[in-house]
Design brief:
The structure holds three protein chains of three kinds. Chain B is built from eleven helices and two strands. By secondary structure, chain B is mostly helical. Chain B starts with a helix and ends in a 9-residue tail after the last helix. The relative contact order of chain C is 0.18. The chains are: A alpha/beta, B mainly alpha, C mainly alpha.
Chain lengths: 242, 295, 326
């Protein structure tokens, strides 16, 4: 077991954003998390990456209790994430952005090594030619790809993708799903991908799916099976998904 | 003897506290609405003090009447500064507005020095006072206190009764929400900045009623620092919190001055300052929303 | 190593300045005046330029250095010449103590709250020294008589001219090497991330507090060394009113912004322009230099936020000359 959440609860004032949630992620697996807006997905990511500390429950990563660990101590263990709205280090170059990931993530590379790794991962995601550009000048799609390269350069064991594919055209989506699948196999990374709407994409990518609703786990299981479950269809305003 | 001195200083501290509160409301209003810390705050207090001085010296206009002039001067200065500088920096990093307001403060001071010289000036407006058993309370200080209360009250009414005042409050509470409701946020910004500066310049007039001979182009620095302490005490960004915190600060300052004076071998003036800055750091660390602030 | 290429231009500037000063005896003092401003620019840049935090109380570190040297020369005069190294050590210790105290409190705060806290620290410390009458209180420490009695008038004079100036020059060279080393090391990359997005930096595995403290500490100790040599040793007195004067902080901030924050060449060029301009203005417009610099700061902030060097750097970005300028 790579990651295990036990009975995790997070409240904001009177609102229970995540409610007694259990979640398990196996090493190297591809998990999809779906749920409508406000179902607690982003809070869940913030709990795993350490931005929030849960009010109740435990988070265990590779057998180690990381519930109260600050974010900067989690990343070196092998956690990496992208953000729904990309957060590049704007005035740094694209290459520097990715190198920072390599330096302080699990890869823990020295400066020169990190810069080389940055080039390598920029080639993988296909924006190598933009490496000397200031990150804030990238297009939204390029920013997302840069964040993906930055997260991969950290050499994570668990990669959390936050609406990575949202707003992309179908061609790009297929390209990026192939890319993630390839890197995931090569480096044995567990990838958790969170989506609000792109059910089609999730069927292509995830082996297993967890459906969240109002901070709770509504359902979990093999992708196609879960997404066609009547309860899920109801949550998503009816209609078959696949 | 000590008890009498303490009693006198407490009353004095309360009266001065009212003026301190008014002198900080502008700073808090500007931070609350625009998220800009006016590091050049004290320079505007200095402008107010000189307004009182020149009106009195040149035209024999009593300081209380100068308040009207100060409000006009303050609104004009606030509007000009906002349109030329602050407006361009609203989306810039915080560093930029800190440096810009600092630069504005220094510029106003240096320009004042250029025209009015570096020396201390003062005036004497003797209108008697009330005799208490332990001290003499001059009317000037009572008037200053009264004016602060009246101005704060008028502002309160304006904020709660008028459309514009309500718009400002809406922006303070929720900027995006206010935009959605059709409030012209830029106009609210300009207006709040101008009102904030006008309040500050006005408080400069009242300050001279306490220290009529301490008028100098560099007098503002001291008030900037005090205003920071008071604003943080009242919860940065809350004008009413600042007004109440002014009283607390005035009391603490004058009370501790008396008490610290009892310790042999120290200089109570310096130590009082030390105490207030230590309080500032403690509040920032323990409860950055201010003693009077909520969550 | 190629990373130290960016030292070439600053070092060339220092050497040319010193050469001018040595060849034209009348220009030595103006040159040292400029070197002082380059020094405080480089020192402050190591914190403000690299982290993006504005420290309005920065001058307190120069003050700690000034007091370190002042205490050594004033209270340990019997050590003779050894009082000077002791002075530098005390300068370091005082600055480190203040750094620990401030770092523990203020560095937890961000943006405006940090700026306000640092002003509080600077003023609080000054009034503690004046109020509790520490080290002579508001009367300060006056050294000229003691130095003349202990070392003889000639050597005392030699101390406050040659030794003080040489010390400042050495400090600037060392500080420049430290700056370039920091920018190109993990520390520099970590701070780059902190400056841009502190929360994202944390998620990337960066211990932001640790790196902010490293920058704070480096900048503080360099400042203290400058205070010890360019103030106490050179002027032979320490007055709290002078060493805590907030205008020095403003000057350092203007220099960093003028030249461009976050590079070494930035504060060097900034210090050079500022020092030379201020010296010239003090001749033609004595007492009103700030009347020129305040609007200058406003223009930079509003229209030119990356400073002179930042602007040039951008222009050169694709031409491969860039590595000389970090």
């Amino acid at each position: 077991m790579l990651l295990k959440l036990e009975n995790v609860t997070k409240r904001f004032g009177g609102l229970v954003a995540v409610n007694k949630l259990d979640l398990e992620v196996e090493e190297g697996e591809a998990l999809g998390i779906v749920g409508p807006n406000g179902s607690g997905k982003t809070t869940l990511y913030n709990l795993i990456s350490g931005v929030y500390i849960p009010d109740e429950g435990k988070i265990i990563f590779e057998g180690k209790d990381i519930t109260n660990l600050p974010p900067h101590k989690r990343a070196p263990l092998g956690l990496a994430r992208t953000f729904q709205i990309p957060r590049p280090f704007g005035s740094a170059s694209v290459r520097e952005n990715v190198a920072i990931g390599a330096m302080f993530g699990r890869a823990h590379a020295g400066v020169d090594e990190a810069l080389e790794m940055a080039d390598e991962y920029l080639k993988i995601v296909g924006i190598y030619e933009l490496r000397n550009k200031e990150a804030k000048l990238l297009t939204p799609l390029e920013k997302k790809l840069m964040e993906l390269a930055r997260a991969l350069a950290m050499k994570p064991k668990l990669l959390l993708l936050d609406e990575l594919l949202a707003g992309m055209n179908p061609k790009d989506i297929d390209k990026i799903i192939d890319l993630i699948k390839r890197v995931k196999e090569e480096e044995n990374i567990a990838v958790v991908s969170m989506v609000e709407h792109l059910m089609h994409a999730i069927t292509k990518f995830a082996e297993r799916v967890v459906v969240m609703h109002q901070g709770r786990k509504l359902l979990e299981g093999p992708t196609i099976e879960v997404l066609n479950h009547p309860e899920v269809i109801e949550v998503y305003l009816g209609g078959r998904v696949v | 003897m000590i008890a009498e001195q303490l009693a006198a200083n407490i009353i004095y501290g309360l009266l001065l506290g009212g003026v301190y509160g008014l002198a900080t409301m502008g700073l808090s209003l500007i931070f609350g609405v625009l998220r800009v810390v006016n590091v050049g705050h004290g320079a505007f207090i200095m402008v107010g003090a000189f307004t009182a001085f020149w009106m009195f010296t040149l035209y024999s206009i009593p300081p209380l009447a100068s308040i009207v002039v100060a409000v006009i001067v303050g609104l004009a200065m606030g509007f000009v500064v906002f349109m030329t500088i602050i407006r361009r920096l609203l989306d810039a990093p915080e560093l930029s507005t800190l440096l810009a307001t600092f630069g504005i403060g220094v510029f106003i001071e240096e320009l004042s020095k250029f025209f009015w010289g570096p020396d201390y000036v003062g005036y004497s407006w003797d209108i008697g006072g009330i005799s208490l058993p332990f001290t003499e309370l001059p009317f000037t200080k009572l008037y200053a206190f009264g004016s602060s209360i009246v101005i704060a009250a008028l502002l309160y009414v304006w904020f709660s009764r008028t459309k514009l005042g309500k718009a400002i409050r809406a922006v303070v509470e929720d900027k995006e929400g206010a935009m959605v409701c059709g409030i012209n946020v830029n106009m609210v910004y300009a207006l709040s900045f101008a009102i904030g500066i006008a309040l500050t310049v006005t408080s400069g007039v009242l300050v001279t009623l306490f220290t009529p001979v301490g008028i100098n182009v560099y007098m503002g620095g001291d008030y900037t620092l005090k205003a920071f302490v008071i604003a943080v005490l009242g919860g940065l960004g809350s004008p009413w919190g600042a007004f109440y915190a002014g009283f607390i600060f005035g009391l603490l300052e004058n009370g501790s001055y008396t008490l610290l004076g009892l310790i042999p071998g120290v200089e109570p003036f310096g130590l009082t300052r030390f105490v207030s800055f230590t309080a500032l750091l403690l509040i920032l660390l323990l409860k950055p929303t201010g003693l009077l602030g909520g969550e | 190593m190629f990373k130290f290429k960016s030292l070439i231009i600053p070092f060339a500037i220092y050497i040319i300045l010193i050469a001018i000063g040595l060849s034209q005896p009348g220009l030595w003092q103006p040159i040292m005046y400029i070197m002082f401003y380059i020094g405080i620019g480089v020192a402050l840049n190591n914190f403000m330029g690299l982290t993006g935090y504005v420290d309005f109380g920065y001058v307190a570190f120069l003050a700690m250095g000034a007091y370190g040297m002042g205490v050594a020369l004033g209270y340990f005069t019997y050590l003779g010449i050894w009082a000077i190294p002791l002075g530098f050590v005390l300068a370091l210790i005082f600055a480190a103590l203040l750094c620990t105290a401030v770092g523990g409190v203020a560095l937890r705060l961000r943006g405006a709250y940090f700026a306000i806290a640092t002003i509080g620290v600077n003023e609080g410390l000054r009034y503690l020294i004046e109020g509790a009458k520490i080290w002579g209180g508001s009367e300060g420490i006056i050294l000229s008589g003691k130095l003349r009695k202990t070392f003889g008038p000639e050597f005392a004079n030699y101390l406050s001219t040659f030794v003080a100036d040489a010390a400042l020059i050495i400090i600037i060279f060392i500080a420049s090497v430290i700056t370039v080393y920091m920018i190109n090391s993990r520390v520099g990359y970590a701070l780059l991330a902190v400056r841009e997005d502190e929360d994202a930096a944390k998620v990337m595995g960066i211990n932001v507090t640790k790196y902010k403290l490293i920058a704070f500490f480096t900048s503080a100790t360099i400042g203290a060394m400058i205070g010890a040599s360019a103030w106490t040793l050179k002027l032979t007195y320490v007055f709290p009113e002078d060493v805590f004067f907030i205008h020095y902080t403003v000057e350092a901030i203007v220099i960093v912004m003028l030249g461009g924050a976050g590079t070494l060449l930035g504060p060097v060029v900034g210090g050079l322009i500022y020092g030379a301009l201020k010296y010239y203005l003090s001749v033609i417009l004595p007492g009103f230099q700030l009347l020129v610099f305040a609007p200058l700061l406003l223009v930079i902030v509003v229209a030119f936020p990356e400073g002179v060097v930042g602007f040039v750097k951008k222009k050169l970005q694709e031409r491969g000359i860039i590595e000389y300028i970090t």
